[in-house]
């Protein structure tokens, strides 16, 4: 009889323990679901209620630009920055080019000068070219130098630097591989954000197909993500808007994840 009582007591304890475990698991699951739900609600709250998908946004902007195929479609991208974050900038080759070929200037002599001319550089030279640049006689979009010429080029850093034209090893514009860099630079697209971490940049013309505009935007966003990862910035791209010369600014739905 005593044995039966003990067995019943053990069974009752096991039942109580299992019940507590089940209750605890249920509560944890509910808390987890609540947490996920809150995250989704927060994400939804951050999304502009008037946001449109990229294709629809382009359609609206084109309606504002009827008869103006050469007007520009622009992207405005808010990025997450910290006090230590350097100015956001980058360079890439867009899927669909949006501007005329860049005017390239190369500081080089001898065989490197010949290679630069053959690759399509518009201005090539040594000391005499440095003097022309210093005097403001030449206008150009990009500047490249050989390592041999670089010490002389630093003498006009005050002229080139403020315009973002000073060649550097870090940017790959001080190099022996002149021909390749000239060809790449002619078709590359440069961008630079303002001090608040907002990038304002053209992504194409009104005459472009919506698919081309979207492809250009995605390429720029991917380059921005590379910048964000290199500086350990999570959730780097926060908001994306598009606009046109005469059109409104339109929030792009899911723009940060494009």
UniProtKB/TrEMBL annotation:
<dbReference type="GO" id="GO:0005762">
    <property type="term" value="C:mitochondrial large ribosomal subunit"/>
</dbReference>
<keyword id="KW-0689">Ribosomal protein</keyword>
<dbReference type="InterPro" id="IPR028364">
    <property type="entry name" value="Ribosomal_uL1/biogenesis"/>
</dbReference>
<keyword id="KW-0687">Ribonucleoprotein</keyword>
<dbReference type="InterPro" id="IPR002143">
    <property type="entry name" value="Ribosomal_uL1"/>
</dbReference>
<dbReference type="InterPro" id="IPR023674">
    <property type="entry name" value="Ribosomal_uL1-like"/>
</dbReference>
<dbReference type="GO" id="GO:0003735">
    <property type="term" value="F:structural constituent of ribosome"/>
</dbReference>
<dbReference type="InterPro" id="IPR023673">
    <property type="entry name" value="Ribosomal_uL1_CS"/>
</dbReference>
<comment type="similarity">
    <text>Belongs to the universal ribosomal protein uL1 family.</text>
</comment>
<dbReference type="GO" id="GO:0003723">
    <property type="term" value="F:RNA binding"/>
</dbReference>
<dbReference type="GO" id="GO:0006412">
    <property type="term" value="P:translation"/>
</dbReference>
<protein>
    <recommendedName>
        <fullName>Ribosomal protein</fullName>
    </recommendedName>
</protein>
<dbReference type="InterPro" id="IPR016095">
    <property type="entry name" value="Ribosomal_uL1_3-a/b-sand"/>
</dbReference>
<dbReference type="Pfam" id="PF00687">
    <property type="entry name" value="Ribosomal_L1"/>
</dbReference>
